[in-house]
Write a sequence for this structure.
């Protein structure tokens, strides 16, 4: 047996280990073994009878929980097993709330403690009522904007157009006991940053990770932020190429607009607003990164997001309003939708990352385009061949000759140069069966 998230080994008992029991009770439960060293080997205990008498009373008196305590034997040595069940209500030790996370114990303080206490009461951060603010303080224009979007999306009845703003907020479950919730402030207040630090979006264009070229900060309520951020991204930060189909002008951006919008909405819905840090969008020459502070649902991994999964928004009241207005779906399809949009657009699948700082979505631009190839100083034959490989998947020397009307020696020299520039790689075959594919395709 190995020491892990729900197992702890201690050679002898100390009263401070009540904190570990508290941490297990507040998390997913666990077991503490007294009489084992840090390798899990039984070293035995001498005062087992006294501990078996004392421990139940100490645990109940200090923590208010009941644990199963068993005396076990191995190689004629005694050790004690303390089985801690997860408790639905918060458990504290001398006024301190401890929590088992991974293989460590931490004392919950500040925002982390607030979040823990809310969850134990069945509440989320965005559902907490706020005193001294009324619906009259919210932005009427945003309520009108919401009505139009929601009716168009057919997510609410047409008669909502005649509801007062207060009735609408109540129907969206944004009012509790005559107080508006935090979600209402973020969704409809003209200046939510007055009440929630970091309730904004920052966009920056980076030459390198440590070289910021220019930036913008977007404030206002969530509806305003989403619209302003999308507008800024696709007018200032993300380039587009212009082509003509007949007389029609066609713009093609570097990234699919629907996928970018979905990533932005996911960041807004799942952000941990108690952290006080803005959503951050970093734009580079070859990639686009979204970051928001937040956590995955318990026992979820990034891999789960790549397949069909239930919808578990971190901020359910915010997510409900965005769903009713037609901004998002409620089936947990956002991450899959982003992947499919990128595949259809012809760029690499986005990468999802999650660590203790938050959640990341990284888009990679399709650099294999004429503009990029020209910047590398390639000749027209090479560019034509690369676009051919991009479409067909591979190219032979004879195909290179045919599409460029050139000699075998010219084709060979051009292909060798493309391999040296790490744009193409050879199949490794010799003779008629030899071909080339895009590097890392």
């Amino acid at each position: 047996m190995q020491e892990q998230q729900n197992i702890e080994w201690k050679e002898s008992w100390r009263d401070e280990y009540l904190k570990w029991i508290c941490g297990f009770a507040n998390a997913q439960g666990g077991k503490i073994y007294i009489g084992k060293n840090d390798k899990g080997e039984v070293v035995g205990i001498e005062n087992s009878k006294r501990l078996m008498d004392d421990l139940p009373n100490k645990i109940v008196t200090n923590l208010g929980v009941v644990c199963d305590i068993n005396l076990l034997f191995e190689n004629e040595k005694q050790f004690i097993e303390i089985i801690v069940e997860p408790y639905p209500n918060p458990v504290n030790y001398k006024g301190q709330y401890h929590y088992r996370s991974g293989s460590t114990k931490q004392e919950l303080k500040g925002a982390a403690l607030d979040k823990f206490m809310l969850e134990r009461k069945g509440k989320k951060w965005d559902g907490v009522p706020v005193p001294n603010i009324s619906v009259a303080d919210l932005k009427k224009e945003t309520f009108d904007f919401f009505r139009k979007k929601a009716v168009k999306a057919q997510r609410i009845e047409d008669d909502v157009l005649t509801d007062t703003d207060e009735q609408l907020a109540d129907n969206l479950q944004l009012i509790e006991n005559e107080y508006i919730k935090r979600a209402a402030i973020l969704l409809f207040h003209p200046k939510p940053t007055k009440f929630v630090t970091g309730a904004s979006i920052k966009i920056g264009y980076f030459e390198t990770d440590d070289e910021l070229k220019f930036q913008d900060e977007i404030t206002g309520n969530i509806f305003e932020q989403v619209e302003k951020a999308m507008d800024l991204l696709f007018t200032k930060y993300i380039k587009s190429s212009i082509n003509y189909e007949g007389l029609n002008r066609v713009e093609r951006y570097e990234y699919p607009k629907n996928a970018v919008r979905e990533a932005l909405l996911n960041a807004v819905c799942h952000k941990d607003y108690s952290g006080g840090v803005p959503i951050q969008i970093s734009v580079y020459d070859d990639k686009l990164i979204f970051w928001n502070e937040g956590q995955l649902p318990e026992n979820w991994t990034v891999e789960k997001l790549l397949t069909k999964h239930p919808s578990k928004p971190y901020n359910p009241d915010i997510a409900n309003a965005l769903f009713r207005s037609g901004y998002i779906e409620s089936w947990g399809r956002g991450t899959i939708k982003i992947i499919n949009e990128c595949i259809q657009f012809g760029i690499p699948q986005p990468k999802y990352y999650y660590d203790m700082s938050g959640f990341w979505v990284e888009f990679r631009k399709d650099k294999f385009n004429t503009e990029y190839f020209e910047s590398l100083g390639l000749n027209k034959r090479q560019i034509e061949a690369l676009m051919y490989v991009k479409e067909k998947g591979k190219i032979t020397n004879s195909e290179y000759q045919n599409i460029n009307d050139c000699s075998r020696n010219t084709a060979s020299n051009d292909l060798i140069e493309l391999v040296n520039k790490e744009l193409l790689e050879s199949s490794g075959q010799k003779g008629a069966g030899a071909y080339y594919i895009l590097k890392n395709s």
